[in-house]
């Protein structure tokens, strides 16, 4: 029995990562529009989706998630309030987790109710739905180092089942020093994709790339032969954040790939026994906006 393939269109992309900056900055560098040694933006992730007072009190993970989500929705040209969403984070807000554990151990009576409120794993999802007035379904996922793959599969499955666009937001922040040996998370990385049914390509998104996703059972079929190439300018970052696993795919979507053949074809582990094979057909470098 041949594996089922999910085909989805990518209408919009968002990015914020250490050393890369925003989606526009990274895409320009990857396409050769800027010199390769030009530094990325040093500003913090920024979003206009929250009022100033809410932005000031929102935790860093929320600002990162909303910043990349806003970029992706803007490029897709779709109203944020109309889309289902999937938010995926390997560890959530580790700074808040460290604060809560330390405070509970040392002086539990001083625990901040606001920080406890922000510590829940769906905090970014909640801020998003409230900030943009979204009443669609929203899913929050945590799967450790498999979180990007699990989030991508969940979003693509919802696109196929519901036949409507779905926003995927994958994000993680650096861990406080006591948690670094456990999480190996030392970089800020946020990714966002607006995925849609391929039928949407006939409705104003003719140049949007398409992804083909299929499951691979490593227990019965072995490790997939197709591996993600180790991109020299991403290799270091990919060891510093679980979400950096998605960066080679993001770079391929930027159009800065080799001409001829597939732009990207590789696997993302969903679990020790299962992988998600993702293919992006070769396409002209100038076909994205």
Structural commentary:
The chain has 289 residues and is of the alpha+beta class. It has a domain at 11-205: Thiolase/Chalcone synthase (Peroxisomal Thiolase, Chain A, domain 1, 3-Layer(aba) Sandwich), CATH 3.40.47.10. It is 34% helix and 22% strand. It is built from eleven helices and nine strands. Strands 1, 2, 3, 4, 5, 6, 7, 8 and 9 form a nine-stranded mixed β-sheet that branches. The chain is globular and about 55 Å long. The N and C termini lie far apart (39 Å).
Radius of gyration: 19 Å
Number of strands: 9
Order of helices and strands: EEHHHEHHHEHEHEEHHHEE
Structural classification: alpha+beta
* Major β-sheet annotation: 9 strands, mixed
Question: Remind me, CATH topology of the domain at 11-205?
Answer: Peroxisomal Thiolase, Chain A, domain 1
Contiguous uncertain segments of 5+ residues:
256-261, 284-289
- CATH superfamily of the domain at 11-205, by name, is Thiolase/Chalcone synthase
The first-to-last residue Cα distance is: 39 Å
């Amino acid at each position: 029995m041949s594996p089922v393939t999910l085909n989805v269109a990518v209408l919009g992309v968002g990015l914020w990562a250490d050393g890369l900056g925003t989606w526009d900055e990274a895409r320009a560098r990857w396409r050769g529009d800027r010199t390769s040694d030009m530094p990325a933006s040093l500003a913090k992730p920024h979003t206009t989706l929250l009022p100033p007072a809410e932005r000031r009190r929102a935790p860093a993970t929320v600002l990162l998630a909303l910043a990349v989500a806003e970029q992706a929705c803007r490029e897709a040209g779709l109203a944020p309030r109309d889309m289902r969403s999937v938010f995926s984070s390997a560890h959530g807000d580790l700074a808040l987790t460290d604060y809560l554990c330390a405070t509970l151990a040392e002086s539990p009576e001083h625990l901040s109710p606001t920080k406890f409120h922000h510590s829940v794993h769906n905090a970014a999802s909640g801020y998003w739905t409230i900030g943009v007035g979204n009443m669609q379904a929203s899913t929050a996922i945590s799967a450790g180092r498999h979180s990007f793959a699990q989030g991508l599969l969940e979003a693509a499955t919802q696109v196929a089942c519901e036949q409507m666009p779905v926003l995927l937001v994958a994000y993680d922040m650096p861990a406080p020093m006591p948690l670094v040996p456990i999480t190996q998370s030392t970089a800020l990385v946020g990714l966002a994709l607006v995925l849609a049914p391929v039928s949407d390509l006939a409705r104003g998104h003719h140049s949007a790339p398409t992804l083909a996703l299929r499951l691979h059972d490593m227990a019965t079929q072995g490790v997939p032969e197709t591996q993600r190439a180790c991109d020299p300018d991403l290799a270091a970052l990919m060891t510093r954040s679980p979400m950096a696993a998605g960066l080679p795919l993001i770079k391929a979507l930027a159009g800065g790939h080799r001409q001829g053949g597939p732009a990207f074809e590789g696997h993302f582990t969903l679990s020790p026994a299962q992988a998600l094979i993702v293919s992006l057909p070769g396409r002209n470098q100038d076909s994205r906006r």
